[in-house]
Amino acid sequence: MIIGRHAIRQSEGSNDLPYPFLSALARGPRGHRTRQVQDAIRAAIVGLALLPGEFIRKGAICARLRVSRVPLSEALENLADEGFVETVPHRGTRVCRIDITSCRQAMLVRRALEGEAMRLLAPRADRRCQASVRGTRFPGSSHVPGVAPKVVPVSNGESIFTASANTAQEPEVNYY
């Protein structure tokens, strides 16, 4: 397959191309291609199929997705605006490295928002909701040694329960 001025030989099954996790895009309405390409690349980055610091081979992605360079370039520009990729002059486009400080800040904000959400929503829980959640430990909610969870006592007039969270877990609800 020849795309632009870069030639990429494509065998019958295109097994010789990199990025086997990408597949040809389905036909969509006009102008929808850029969004499809952007979503496919974002999913590959978030799923760590494209690793932080890895340079993106545009020709190979075009061949895999069966798109021209225009929607790919637009998609990469949008992903750069979102902070997923960066353009390195005279080198190409690469997946951004993970910024630990930003991750910690996001976790702090998430923890504050989830705690506040539990504080506001728990008093409004009806009996059926309470019964479905009673004693449930949310995924990843085991206590992390050395980290004190934030516990918020909540009462809805019928029962008392606590909502807790810490930096390494989802909220946890315990009824008493």
Task: Please describe the topology of this protein.
Elements: E1 2-3, E2 6-7, H1 33-46, H2 58-65, H3 69-82, E3 85-88, E4 92-95, H4 100-121, H5 127-133, E5 150-155, E6 160-165, E7 172-175
Antiparallel strand pairs: 1-2, 3-4, 5-6, 6-7
Question: Can you walk through the features of this model?
Answer:
- This protein is of the alpha+beta class.
- The protein has two domains: 2-95, Orthogonal Bundle (Arc Repressor Mutant, subunit A), CATH 1.10.10; 109-175, no CATH class.
- Helix content is 37%, strand content 16%.
- It is built from five helices and seven strands.
- It has helices at residues 33-46, 58-65, 69-82, 100-121, 127-133, and strands at 2-3, 6-7, 85-88, 92-95, 150-155, 160-165, 172-175.
- It has a three-stranded antiparallel beta sheet with strand order 5-6-7, covered by helices on one side.
- A hairpin with a 4-residue loop joins strand 5 (150-155) and strand 6.
- Helix 1 packs across helix 3 (69-82).
- Residues 1-13, 140-156, 158-163 and 165-171 have low confidence and may be disordered.
